[in-house]
Design brief:
With 221 residues, the chain is α+β, with helices and mostly antiparallel strands. Helix content is 27%, strand content 32%. The radius of gyration is 18 Å and the shape is globular.
């Protein structure tokens, strides 16, 4: 393998840090700028950024570009009419809790005007997993069990908040609970819980992290 090929492979495997991920997305359209500005100016965002125990990131932007474009949520479901801008997240350093703010467009529906339940399940699976990663070996795990209860329709073209908390950790296993709720636009208005979930994540025995914490995990068969 040549030096150029080695450098290319390293670049393709490099996982961007949380801090670096915040600067990688630049809105290109009026819609993206509007959604980005709304999230950045919301009181919930301000309160999360003021908490020193939380690490802010845009997790989908942490994936290497070559992986991002073929990833379901970072690539296929990201963009105009779908997940309009890469979600912002805040994760507790001790893996105890996690918050994510997203905007979903009009093209992720099951019924007309209602976000597909399978998409909400995907959001919950990824969000609950990210919550507990800090307490699992190699900071990664796979889904062993996921249970979801749908509480109310999630209407398209709105902002959603995902909240999760780790309830128990035993070795390579972590149990997490969470939900998706609306992001109220008016001060003092209570959010509506749209779906709740509980999950079990397991860090594989044969998981290895290549090189350092910023590299992609390999699971050897």
């Amino acid at each position: 393998m040549t030096a150029t090929e080695t450098d290319t492979m390293a670049e393709n495997l490099h996982r961007t840090s949380a801090a670096e991920s915040l600067a990688l997305f630049v809105p290109q359209t009026d819609e993206e700028r509007t959604k980005e500005e709304y999230i950045n100016s919301h009181p919930l965002t301000a309160s999360l950024r003021a908490d020193p125990n939380l690490v802010e990131s845009r997790p989908h932007m942490q994936l290497p570009p070559a992986w991002r474009k073929i990833n379901l949520t970072a690539g296929t479901l990201m963009g105009p009419g779908k997940v309009t801008v890469p979600p912002f997240s805040w994760a507790a350093r001790d893996g105890s809790n996690y918050v994510q703010i997203s905007h979903v467009g009009t093209d992720l529906c099951g019924h007309v005007g209602i976000v597909h339940g399978g998409f909400l399940a995907t959001m919950l699976d990824e969000g609950l997993a990210r919550c507990c990663f800090p307490v699992l070996p190699h900071q990664v795990g796979v889904t062993a069990k996921l249970e979801i209860n749908y509480k109310a329709p999630a209407m398209a073209d709105q902002f959603l908040v995902l909240r999760a908390r780790t309830t128990k950790v035993e070795g390579r296993k972590a149990w997490v609970e969470g939900h998706i709720e609306t992001l109220p636009g008016e001060e003092g208005k209570e959010p509506t819980i749209l779906a709740t979930a509980s999950a079990l994540y397991v860090s594989p025995k044969n998981a290895e992290v290549s090189g350092n914490d910023n590299c992609i995990m390999n699971i050897n068969e």
